[in-house]
Design goal:
Length: 198
């Protein structure tokens, strides 16, 4: 039996100067999911995160945005996992993905961190790579024909056409979240892949 998702962690950097940057795509999706569950974020210092508590079909769902910088995201993930007595496969991490173009998205469980500092820290804090990830494509400066270094690229806002494509992906992720909260991962994956082909 596959366990449904109970803890959703959006990745990003705190502070207004980072709000619109590509690296904060996970935060953007987390904000929408909190709206969809009719809940809002409160800073909970014990978890080093902004936390929104909602319910789906009677079950508690926690959405969190770490209040630390990206490379310390594991602090919040580990604290929340322990407090709510969850296991890694009940965790869904929302993050930006350089290896996918804007407009693309993939759902996967486990695997490496591909150099993503937020994922690396969460993997280390949970002592396991066995959590779910929604990988939101932001593209890579090389594939997008930009001369920027990766570090500068992720800390800049997407261009207008990229933003439109990323927003489309966020809507598709919102559409499959109910399936993830019911543990219907095959259905969620098929739904995402159908939309990828459109």
């Amino acid at each position: 039996m596959t366990l449904p998702v109970r803890l959703i962690i959006g990745l990003g950097n705190p502070g207004p100067e980072y709000e619109a940057t590509r690296h904060n795509a996970g935060f953007w999706l987390a904000d929408h999911l909190a709206d969809d569950l009719k809940t809002s974020f409160t800073l909970e210092k014990a978890f080093s995160a902004w936390v929104a508590k909602g319910r789906y079909e009677g079950e508690a769902v926690i959405i969190a945005k770490p209040a630390t910088f990206m490379n310390r995201s594991g602090q919040a993930a580990g604290a929340l996992l322990r407090f709510y007595k969850l296991v890694p496969e009940q965790v869904l991490v929302l993050h930006d993905e350089l290896d996918l173009l804007p407009g693309q998205v993939k759902l996967k469980r486990a695997g490496g961190h591909a150099g993503h500092n937020g994922l690396r820290d969460i993997q280390s804090a949970l002592s396991s790579p066995d959590f779910w990830r929604l990988r939101i494509g932001i593209g890579h400066p090389r594939t997008l024909g930009l001369a920027q270094q990766v570090a500068a690229f992720v800390l800049n806002p997407p261009r207008r056409e990229e933003l439109t494509q990323i927003e489309g992906v966020i809507d598709r992720c919102r559409a499959i979240t109910p399936a993830l909260l019911r543990g219907e991962f095959a259905q969620a994956t098929n739904q995402l892949h159908e939309a990828n082909r459109v």
